[in-house]
Protein: Leucine-rich repeat and guanylate kinase domain-containing protein
Amino acid sequence: KQVAAVNKYDPPPEVVAAKDHMTHVMYSMLQPHRIFDSTLPSLDAPYPMLVLVGPLVCGKRELTHKICRQFNNFFRYGPCHTTRAAYFGEENRLDYYFVSQEAFDKMVNTGKFIATYKYSGYYYGLGRDTVESIAREGLATCIHLEIEGVRSLKNTYFKPRYILLVPMNKEKYEGHLRRKGLFSRPEIEEAVSRVDTYIQISQDFPGYFDAVVNTDELDEAFTELSFLVKAYLGLEPPAVVDSIQDVNSRAGAVITGTTRSSSVNEFLDSSAKNYPGGISDKLAAQLSSVEEASLQRRFSAARQALSGKAPSAYVQLFQR
Structure:
C-alpha cells in the first residue's frame, strides 16, 4: 500500500517554495502560449537578471535603484507586487506595485507571476509582465528580494546572479531599524535574527549567492557592488579587476570566521557561464550570416506554429 503525507503545519521553506513554483507553472499553462521577450536565442545565454538579496531595510532597495541609475544602458528596475501598505517615502510603481489581497490572488490565478513568497504576513510577487516589459527594451532586470523569494525564483528556468547584502554589525543595524520608526519591537528582533540566517545559508551552501557585500556603510557597499557589476559587464580593464581581487584578499573575511562567499573572480566566472554583458547586442554580434539566417527561419517557424499555421514542406526551398 502507498501512503501519502502532507505537512500542513510547518513545512520546510524549500517545500513552500516548490509548491509556489508548481502553482505558477500550473496557472501559466492555462494561459495562451506565446514566445516571451525574455526568451533568448541560445540556451547557453539565458535572460540576464541581477537579484540583490538581504534582510529587512538592509539597503537593498536603495542600492538596487542606484545600480539601475548608474548602469541604465544595461539594467532596469523591476518592482515587485505586494499586499502590504507603502512605507513612508515609498511610491507606487516606483518601489513596488501596492495591490489588495484580492487583486494579488487574481494575478496568481491568471498566471501573472513568475514567483511569489510570503514575508511578515504579506505577499510579494515578481510579475511576468514586469520582466517582459524590461526585456522588450533589450535590458536586463534588476530586483531585490528576501530569502523566501530567492528560494522560489531558484525553482524557475531563470538563472539570475544573486548578490547577498548583509549588515555585519547587528547593533548598528538594529539601531537603524529603530530610527526608521516603522517597525514594532518583535519585527525588529525578527529582522536582526534573520541576519544570522542569511549568513548561515551562505556558509552552509557555498555558491548559493554569487557574491557577498557588507552593507554596514552603504557608500562602501555601493562602491563594491559597482565594481562587481562593472567587471561582470566587462566595463573594467583586467588591471582594475586584478586590483579589486587584491583588495578583497587583503580585506580578509567578510563573514566572521569564514572566507568571502565568492570572490570577484568567482563572480565573473559564474556570470560568464551564462550571459556575458551587452546582452542581445553582443549575442547578435557573435552570429555569422548563416547562423543569423538559420535563426530567423526558426523564429518564423515558431511564430507560425503558435499562430496555428502549418508551412508547406517545400516553402524553405524557395526562400532566398
